[in-house]
Specification:
This protein is about 25% helix and about 30% strand. The protein has a five-stranded mixed sheet. The protein is globular.
Length: about 190
């Protein structure tokens, strides 16, 4: 009986050591596997874009005074001749390639918004123009403007723009949304 008890004790001493070694090997394999899949996808932690700040100036207002940036209206109204400037500034300079893609969303349907974006060497983006230029062939009414900025290969398509902000899941993209109303009438001035 003592031989079977000795064998059981030997197994008990071996089991924790074996379990720890197997757990360490599994963790290493998982870590290497995750890094491998990111490499296969071409993703590196350095592909992440920095945080961006949105500044929006323009639109029709009942008064001529421009609001302070912290008082930006939740909905921008744009009538004939109205101008709009959208500036996206990175928290830190980003010399890697930056792409911009815009969408206009209405009734859960997104349409590509062909915008001419100026991108500076440090990653800042500026979109500016009059209503007739920025929103040519876009019917009057309420819209949601979505602007995605990030690595060109990671920018969303129209379907992804409707579903939500890809920047929540992909550090290579930041998406900004703002409600706008396009009108066929000029601004109401006092």
């Amino acid at each position: 009986m003592s031989t079977s008890t000795d064998k059981l004790r030997a197994k008990r001493k071996w089991s924790p050591a074996l379990s720890a070694a197997l757990a360490a090997a599994a963790a290493a394999a998982l870590l290497i596997g995750l890094r491998g899949s990111n490499t296969e996808l071409g993703l590196e932690s350095t592909d992440a874009v920095p945080g961006y700040e949105l500044a929006l100036v323009g639109g029709d207002r009942p008064t001529r005074a421009e609001p302070a940036p912290s008082e930006a209206p939740s909905t921008v109204v744009l009538g004939p001749g109205s101008s709009l400037e959208i500036v996206l500034r990175p928290a830190t300079p980003d010399p890697k390639p930056i792409g911009v893609r815009g969408f206009l969303i209405q009734n859960e349907q997104a349409r590509p918004w062909e915008v001419k974006a100026e991108v500076s060497p440090d990653g800042a983006v500026r979109i500016a123009g009059e209503r007739e230029t920025l929103f040519a062939n876009v019917p009057a009414g309420p819209w949601e403007m979505a602007v995605a900025i990030g690595r060109p290969e990671a920018l969303p398509d129209a379907e992804a723009a409707v579903r939500g902000t890809p920047g929540d899941k992909d550090a290579r993209v930041r998406t900004f949304r703002r409600k706008i109303v396009l009108t066929d009438e000029g601004p109401a001035r006092p």
